Every structure is written in structure tokens, then in C-alpha cells.
Amino acid sequence: MNRPTNDNIKTxxxxxxxxxxxxxxxxxxxxxxxxxxxxxxxxxxFSISVLVSWMLRRKPVWQxxxxxxxxxxxxMIVGQRVTQVPIxxxxxxxxxxxxxxxxxxxxxxxxxxxxxxxxxxxxxxxxERSQQLALGQNVVVRHADQGFVRSxxxxxxxxxxxxxxxxxRCRLWFxxxxxxxxxxxxxxxxxxxxxxxxxxxxLGDKSALTQELRETYSITGASHxxxxxxxxxxxxxxxxxxxxxxxxxxxxxxxxxxxxxWAFAFLTGLSTSVVRSATMISIYALxxxxxxxxxxxxxxxxxxxxxxxVNPASIDDIGFQLSFAAVLSILLWMPLIEHFLPxxxxxxxxxxxFIINMVGMSVxxxxxxxxxxxxxxxxxxxxxxxxxxxxxPLATIILxxxxxxxxxxxxxxxxxxxxxxxxxxLEWLSQVPYASIDGLHPSTVQIGLFxxxxxxxxxxxxxxxxxx
Length: 468
What we know:
alpha+beta, seven-stranded mixed beta sheet, two-stranded antiparallel sheet, 19 helices
């Protein structure tokens, strides 16, 4: 196992991950973008910052501060692209880009607006017409009140499909392919809950999840397995790596793996967490083929910078916040945990290594995401450690099992039994006393203070790391 050396532990951390502070500066600029909207002035200040940074090239510390200011002003500039939902009292042509999800009074769909290059979540008033809506249909929306559309304010028709870009057409083709796979799932004789979990966990379609099922997974802290993320792509990457015989013709195997990973990302709807994971894997593969050193934290920061520059609105996406917070926290804390163990201890004790890794990754991820979950959902799951010991192995079995069932349908009963076991176990765990602490509503200041405290503790632990 590659362990961090003592020199690496004692080295000032920011010098080992040079992209961390620029990524934070860019995020700060995006958050502050709404405070000043004069694009010309912002561009002038950005240009002056670039010039000053270049002039300070003989003074590394001051130049570093200048570069950080460049990223801040760049964030302010690209943040001006974040606009409100472009459906008010106007006229918008759109294309249905998701499986319609039936709610008590509405039908929830994702509508792609080709004229505005945006995708929005809309809730159509439930009636016979909206219940017949299908993936890929053209619709025209005349008015939306905060995403809610009444029956008289939309109709089927328009020319949205003809206006789609090549990338959006590719996305739609993959979504139709996913629709076909979902239809195959429905032939497995699964009950509603089993189908909903299979659809969400393997293809990213959450339209069949009931509120009760969502609540069960939320209380137990298992919601992350319903949102496709690095866990799922990591399992897929490992399978593909073994199927391509590892390092034989390494560049070719890595190219095939990256293409398959992005095909899966398109198949599952290009959610933020999947795009983050696919981008990181792609960059990691590129560096691996080139034989270059790749720092996981640097890769994560570079991925965040690219995603935010391409789509600044991602900063407000809960999936983006949770995904990056969890991965960054794991990448920071896990090397320290491993460093406190004897050399090769995890390699020589596989079972203990599994326990330590599972506990360490669960706690590290929880440190990163707990404040964000409390802020958005007002909840903290107290049994998240027990949950992860249960759901991670079962999620792996379900992912591999689904692939086998698509090839050998006669194995479907075994797969459905595993899904039912997962649902029943989490349902029981959600009913255990104090399974979650509710009513938490921290302010942004409190969240900021929490992360500052965690960084201080991290710095102290890093300095106390023993010599090896």
C-alpha cells in the first residue's frame, strides 16, 4: 500500500495541493457574484489582477495572492451567467428529458429549454394529458409559477427537438436506452419498492421512489446509495479494470474504461455526482497513461474548477455540494488514519483493514457532509456507521447482480431477494430509537465555523502524526 511519508505529513499542506486554494477562491467568487453585476468593471479588475500577478513573478508569496484574486474575480465573472428559470409569463419550447414522476397532485418532469440552454424541474398539474407525457416529447410552456405549471399553461407540440445540440441529442438517445432497460426491469416480477431501488441505484432514475422509501433511506443515512456517485463508478471501474486485464496495453484499456464510464454517465442522466466522478476518473486515467504523479486532492480541485467554469449554477446544486464535500473530507482524513497504523498493517490484516477503512471513510465522509445535510434537510443520522457496513457490500452485490440478470434473467429472484433484504434491514433500522436527530437548522455562519474547527483539528492531527 502506498503510504504517505512523514515528510509529506509534515510539509505545509497547501504546497502539496496547489489547486485547493484557487478552487476555494473561485467558489467564493461565485457565491459573491450576486453582490456586484457590472460585467465590464469585473472584467477590468480581473485583467488588472492577471497583469499584477505576472509582474510579481519574482515574489512568489505576493504572486500567489494575486493568482487567488484572479480566481476570485473569475468566479464573479462566470457567476453572472447564473440566471433564474427562464419561464415566466413568456413562451418557451421544451423537451421532456426525464421519466415523468407521479406525485399526489402533480407530474414532475425535467424540461430542457434549447433556446436558453438550461434544464429545469417542472411540476405539471396532474390530469389525463400530463399522465400520458413521455420521455422525448416536445412541449410548449407559457407560464410557470416557481416551477408549477397549470393545465392551461402548457401543451404538447413545438420544435424543441429540432433545436437540440448534438450533445443533448446524445443525452436523449442514452435516456431512451435507459427507458428500454427500465422496461426490462419491470419484467422481473419485482414489487414497487424493489423496482424503485433497482432503478435508482443502477440507472439513476428516482421517479418510482415513494416518499416513505425516501424517508427510510434518509433516516438511516443510506440516501447516498440512491444517488449515483463515486461509490457506484468506483465499483464499475474496478470491474472494467479487471475485464481489460489491468496493465496489458495500459493506454488502450484506460481509453476503453473512460469511454465506458462516460457512456454510463450519459445513461444515468449526467447527474452532478456522476459527472464529478467520471471527470476525476478521466483525468486520473490521463495522468496514469502519461506516467505522471497525480494527487487525488488536486484532481478533485481541478474537476471542481472545470465543472464550475462550464456550469456555474452547479454551486447551488445540493448534489454538487455533498459530492465534493464527502470526497474532499475522505481524501484529507484517510491518509492520516492510515499513517497512524503500522507499516503494511492493512495489507497483512485484510479483515481488520476492511473494518478500519469502512469506519474511517464513513466518519470522514460524515464530517464533510453532515453540516450540509443538516442545513438543507435538518437531520443527522446517528447510525450511519452501521448503515454503511450494511449498504456498501449489498450495493456492490446489487450492481454486479443487475448486470448478470440482464444477461441471465433466471437469476432475477436472487437479485430481488438481496434488494428486499436491504429494504427490510433499513426499514428496521429506521425504527430504532434515536435513529436520527431532526430539527437541525444551522446557519451559514455556524456551518463555516464548523468547517474551520475541523480544519484546525486536521492541522493539529497532521502535526502529531508519528514517525514511521
